[in-house]
Amino acid sequence: MAEFDHATKTQRSVRPSWIIGDEIRAEVTERRALLEAAGMQEARYDGQFIIRGTQIESVQLEPTPETRQATDLALSQFIEWASKERPERLA
After folding, report:
1. Strand order in the sheet with 23-31
2. How many Å apart are CA 36 and CA 24, to the nearest integer?
3. Distance CA 40, CA 55 (A)
4. Residues 53, 31 contacting (CB under 8 angstroms)
5. Residue 10: what are its φ and ψ, rounded to 5°?
6. Please, which residues bridge with residue 15 across strands?
7. Sequence-separated (6 or more) residues with CB below 8 Å from residue 60
8. H helix runs in 1-91, sequence order
9. How far apart are CA 48 and CA 42, in angstroms?
10. Euclidean distance between the first and final Cα of the chain, in Å?
11. Which run of H or E residues covers position 32?
12. Please, what are the averages of pLDDT over each run of 10 residues along the chain (91 residues)?
Protein backbone atom coordinates (compact mmCIF):
# COMPACT_ATOMS: atom_id res chain seq x y z
CA MET A 1 0.00 0.00 0.00
CA ALA A 2 2.78 2.46 0.86
CA GLU A 3 4.42 1.89 -2.55
CA PHE A 4 1.10 2.51 -4.35
CA ASP A 5 0.50 5.66 -2.29
CA HIS A 6 3.98 6.90 -3.11
CA ALA A 7 3.62 6.15 -6.82
CA THR A 8 0.25 7.93 -7.01
CA LYS A 9 1.42 10.88 -4.88
CA THR A 10 -1.23 10.25 -2.23
CA GLN A 11 -1.80 12.70 0.59
CA ARG A 12 -4.32 12.04 3.35
CA SER A 13 -5.52 14.10 6.24
CA VAL A 14 -7.56 12.83 9.17
CA ARG A 15 -9.61 15.25 11.21
CA PRO A 16 -11.16 13.59 14.29
CA SER A 17 -14.69 14.65 15.12
CA TRP A 18 -15.05 12.63 18.33
CA ILE A 19 -13.30 10.02 20.41
CA ILE A 20 -15.10 7.64 22.76
CA GLY A 21 -13.08 4.87 24.38
CA ASP A 22 -11.21 3.02 21.67
CA GLU A 23 -13.32 4.43 18.80
CA ILE A 24 -12.48 7.49 16.76
CA ARG A 25 -14.78 9.06 14.19
CA ALA A 26 -13.07 11.32 11.68
CA GLU A 27 -13.31 13.05 8.34
CA VAL A 28 -10.66 11.67 6.00
CA THR A 29 -9.59 13.67 2.95
CA GLU A 30 -7.47 12.11 0.24
CA ARG A 31 -5.65 13.69 -2.68
CA ARG A 32 -3.76 11.68 -5.27
CA ALA A 33 -2.62 11.92 -8.86
CA LEU A 34 -5.06 9.18 -9.86
CA LEU A 35 -8.01 11.20 -8.58
CA GLU A 36 -6.79 14.31 -10.39
CA ALA A 37 -6.46 12.33 -13.63
CA ALA A 38 -10.10 11.31 -13.17
CA GLY A 39 -11.10 14.96 -12.74
CA MET A 40 -11.51 14.85 -8.97
CA GLN A 41 -9.76 17.37 -6.73
CA GLU A 42 -10.06 15.17 -3.65
CA ALA A 43 -12.06 12.36 -2.09
CA ARG A 44 -13.73 12.66 1.31
CA TYR A 45 -14.71 9.83 3.62
CA ASP A 46 -16.44 9.42 6.97
CA GLY A 47 -14.06 7.22 8.91
CA GLN A 48 -14.33 4.99 11.94
CA PHE A 49 -11.09 3.82 13.56
CA ILE A 50 -10.82 1.26 16.37
CA ILE A 51 -7.63 1.51 18.43
CA ARG A 52 -6.39 -1.24 20.74
CA GLY A 53 -3.43 -0.14 22.81
CA THR A 54 -1.04 1.49 20.38
CA GLN A 55 -2.32 -0.22 17.22
CA ILE A 56 -5.12 0.47 14.80
CA GLU A 57 -7.32 -2.63 14.87
CA SER A 58 -9.75 -1.63 12.14
CA VAL A 59 -10.61 1.17 9.75
CA GLN A 60 -13.90 1.68 7.95
CA LEU A 61 -14.20 4.45 5.38
CA GLU A 62 -17.50 5.44 3.80
CA PRO A 63 -17.31 7.86 0.88
CA THR A 64 -19.37 11.01 1.26
CA PRO A 65 -22.28 11.32 -1.19
CA GLU A 66 -20.30 13.91 -3.21
CA THR A 67 -17.28 11.60 -3.46
CA ARG A 68 -19.46 8.63 -4.42
CA GLN A 69 -21.16 10.69 -7.16
CA ALA A 70 -17.84 11.99 -8.54
CA THR A 71 -16.35 8.48 -8.49
CA ASP A 72 -19.38 6.99 -10.27
CA LEU A 73 -19.13 9.68 -12.97
CA ALA A 74 -15.38 9.15 -13.46
CA LEU A 75 -15.80 5.37 -13.69
CA SER A 76 -18.69 5.62 -16.14
CA GLN A 77 -16.61 7.90 -18.39
CA PHE A 78 -13.67 5.47 -18.20
CA ILE A 79 -15.86 2.46 -19.02
CA GLU A 80 -17.39 4.32 -21.97
CA TRP A 81 -13.90 5.13 -23.29
CA ALA A 82 -12.60 1.59 -22.70
CA SER A 83 -15.64 0.05 -24.41
CA LYS A 84 -14.77 1.96 -27.58
CA GLU A 85 -10.98 1.90 -27.45
CA ARG A 86 -10.16 -1.41 -25.72
CA PRO A 87 -13.27 -3.61 -25.72
CA GLU A 88 -11.17 -6.80 -25.66
CA ARG A 89 -9.68 -5.77 -22.30
CA LEU A 90 -13.01 -5.32 -20.51
CA ALA A 91 -14.09 -8.48 -18.80
Report:
1. 11-20, 23-31, 43-52, 55-63
2. 29
3. 32
4. no
5. -80, 135
6. 27
7. 47, 48
8. 2-7, 33-37, 65-85
9. 19
10. 25
11. none
12. 80 94 96 86 96 94 95 89 88 68
